[in-house]
Amino acid sequence: MNTSSMLTDEIHEYWTGVANTFQWNKKWDSLQSGNFTDVNVEWFKGARLNITENCLDRHLEKRRHKKALIFEPNNPNEEAKFFTYGELHLSVCRFANLLKKKGVKKGDIVCFYMGMTPELMMGILACARLGAVHTVVFGGFSPTSLRGRLEDSKAKVIVTHDGSFRGDKIVPLKSMVDEAIESLNSVETVLVVKRTLNEIFMKPGRDFYYEAAIKDCELHCPATVVEAEDPLFILYTSGSTGKPKGLVHTTAGYMVHVGNSFKDVFQIKENDVFWCTADIGWITGHSYLTYGPLLNGSTTVMFEGIPNHPTPSRFWEVVEKHKVSHLYTAPTAIRSLEKFGAAIPDSFSMKSLKVLGSVGEPINEEAWQWYHKHVGKEKCPIVDTWWQTETGGILISPIAGLTKLKPGHATLPLKGVVPVLVDEKGVELTTLVASGNLCIKYPWPSLARTIFGDHERFKQTYFSTYKGLYFTGDGARRDEDGYFRITGRVDDVINVSGHRIGTAEVEEAINEHPLITESAVVGFPHEIKGQGLYAFVTCNDESLTPEVLEKQIRSTVEKVIGPIAKPDVIQIVHSLPKTRSGKIMRRILRKIVENDLANIGDISTLLNPECVDDIIKGKKS
Ligand code: PRX
After folding, report:
1. Contacts 24+ apart (CB under 8 A), 22-26
2. How far is the CA of 388 from the centre of ligand 1 (A)?
3. Which atom from ligand 1 is nearest to the alpha carbon of 473?
4. CATH number of the domain that residue 430 is part of
5. With 50 as the cut, is the pLDDT of residue 260 above it?
6. CA atoms within 13 Å, Cβ hemisphere of 116
7. 386 CA distance to ligand 1 centroid (A)?
8. 532/548 same-domain check
9. 376: closest CA among 436, 434, 449, 326?
10. 469 shares its domain with 500
11. Are residues 570 and 547 in the same domain?
12. Structure confidence by residue, pLDDT tens digits, 277-304
């Protein structure tokens, strides 16, 4: 059935059927309530459950000895680790007892700032076991970014590593935590998991080694039963304005949609091995590395390293080593491996592969074809899955093996999801072929419920642009088959290597450099990253050479946000194009970096039209 023709009753019937496949301590009194006008959506109200019983306990009878988790370390010479459902269950329970010993209880917030090792997955599940709320901060963010998130969430406990391996580097996570929490009184306990064994400072009474602390913790931990709408996690993501937003996902709705979409989209079978290459610090790692696979009793692969370390054949070696059947990765990873040539994947048969997935950014046709031919050997469907941190799970995607594919198209909405395209004024475009802003018309269970501590901002950001609709921030086209093709963000968010970066955040970071007066950051098409960051800056002081200034700007951004937000190109300009009211015209800058000068529009009304020519002349290719 085509979702757009589903009636509310049918949508409800559908979700009721899906929800009935999960384990509940008590079923819901009301399936769904609230709407996008009042922004008070709730699902499964009155139900009681624990998500870890759904991820772990309920599989024990049939799958106790089945592999739940395969851990592939950064260094290929270090042995992989395997955890059966039975073992993962015990590890999670023991970790939960440790958190309990450190005072964590239902509703408390625990922050994870870690590399990708099994303890990260166990830790977040341990939180969920206790009804505590996890907030994972990607280990590539800077201490300043971590501090901002801790100030917002007020997490009392942090779990970290001494350091994490990233290719041939060590990221000194514990000392980064020390820097982040200096004089931040809300943090009472830091648990340190040993990984890189680099020297670290341990503050007595605050810092504890995980290995020592967990030794005498029991292996049995009853699951805390929570309400359907109790929060499961907070995940921070960037928007077009202001500080990163802590999106709050609640337990039952998230579980139902994520568990179900994993099964449906990837058409998972009992003996499949699923490898999602995302870091757990992002929503993809939450939903389709951790919860989705475990909710379905599947085997999930966790990879500590990066695609081209120690060589660009690493991904394909891991696929063969662990007999991966489903590979789910980002276009940026595909493009970065493509540049090493097809001969590398061609020398691997990868015959275990059945389904390929793409996520995080639009996939260009060339990368799609390369992935299809050289990785999937022309026999694996590619599911181009569109979704967001806010949506919790996949909303638009082919169903593997069932939907006819079109490269670059996320194709059709999943059942129960009702996307619409609207024009600038919010009028719904009802013709089949249309191009507009992508909105969702009807609530789905795994929608984030709020921004932590700021419901007004949640309303403003997602529900005020178009009345009664959830606005995604993306543009899309719908073709004669009703297929959606996502064209990219229409706001000031840039998708760099599939990572969401708010231009305002980067500008703020650049402006922290004492010699910078003003800056404007826009996205430009980048061969590998999809989009790169192009920064225009003004500086009144000529004491530094442009090279030195650029270097300093990059390190300022790295310090404030993290390496992922470092501008690819920096152009020092005399002034930025502004309206008469002083607003920087980023639209003009965007056209310049996209080499689309024909569409630059009328500049005569600008406060300083003469600067546009200078900027064009000085543009760096
Ligand atoms: O612009 C869309 C892009 O990624 C944004 C969401 O980013 P984030 O919240 O970090 O979540 C990424 C992982 C789900 C979207 O607004 N995006 C995500 N998937 C696709 C995509 N763009 C095109 N095609 C996709 N398949």
Report:
1. 22/49, 22/54, 22/255, 22/256, 22/259, 22/295, 23/49, 23/53, 23/54, 23/58, 24/48, 24/49, 25/49, 25/50, 25/225
2. 5
3. 16
4. 2.30.38.10
5. yes
6. 28
7. 6
8. yes
9. 326
10. no
11. yes
12. 999 999 999 999 999 999 999 999 999 9
Q: Which residues on adjacent β-strands are paired with residue 49?
A: 226
**Sign of CA pseudo-dihedral 88, 93, 97, 99:** positive
CA of 504 from ligand 1 middle (Å) equals 19
Q: Ligand 1 — pocket residues by CB below 6 A?
A: 237, 283-284, 358-362, 384-389, 410, 472-474, 486, 488-489, 495, 500
- The total number of structural domains in the chain stands at 2
Same domain for 473 and 562, yes or no, is no
How many residues are recorded in the chain? 621
Q: What is the 3-state secondary structure (H, E, C) of 488-505?
A: EECCCEEEECCEEEEHHH
Ligand 1: distance of its center to the CA of 360 in Å? 4
Asked whether residue 562 is domain-assigned, the answer is yes
Average pLDDT, stretch 534-559?
A: 95
Domain for residue 464, yes or no?
yes
Looking up residue 559, the CATH number of its domain turns out to be 3.30.300.30
Domain that holds residue 536: 493-618
Atom of ligand 1 nearest to the CA of 394: 14
Ligand 1 atom closest to Cα of 384? 26
417 CA → ligand 1 middle, Å = 16
Ligand 1 centre and the CA of 287: distance in Å? 14
As a whole number of angstroms, the distance between CA 58 and CA 191 comes to 29
Say if residues 243 and 286 touch (Cβ distance below 8 Å).
no
Among 280, 283, 329, 361, say which to mutate for ligand 1: greatest number of ligand atoms within 8 Å of CB. 361
For ligand 1, atom 18: residue with the closest CA: 360
User: Is the residue at 141 inside a domain?
Assistant: no
Same domain, 468 and 561: no
Residues 529 and 467 grouped into a single domain = no
Asked if 504 and 571 sit in the same domain, the reply is yes
Atom of ligand 1 nearest to the CA of 390: 9
Q: Is the pLDDT of residue 3 over 80?
A: no
Mutate to test the pocket of ligand 1, among 335, 356, 406, 500 (most ligand atoms within 8 A of CB): 500
**Phi, psi at residue 88, to the nearest 5°?**
-65, -40
Reported as a single tens digit per residue, the pLDDT across 424-471 is 899 999 999 999 999 999 999 999 999 999 999 999 999 999 999 999
Final residue of a domain: which of 489, 504, 529? 489
> pTM value?
0.95
The closest alpha carbon to 324, from 285, 297, 356, 347, belongs to 356
**Beta 419-422 vs 434-440: how paired, if at all?**
antiparallel
**What are residue 166's DSSP bridge partners?**
169
pLDDT at 583 over 90: no
Helix, strand counts (H, E) of the chain: 20, 30
User: 554 lies in a domain?
Assistant: yes
**Helix pair angle (118-130, 85-101), 10° resolution:** 60
How many Å apart are CA 395 and CA 4, to the nearest integer? 13
Which token pair is 404? 């006819």
DSSP secondary structure string, 65-116? TSEEEEEE-SSTTSPPEEEEHHHHHHHHHHHHHHHHHTT--TT-EEEEE--S
pLDDT in tens, 182-206: 999 999 999 999 999 999 999 999 9
478 and 439 inside one domain: yes
Domain-terminating residue out of 489, 512, 535: 489
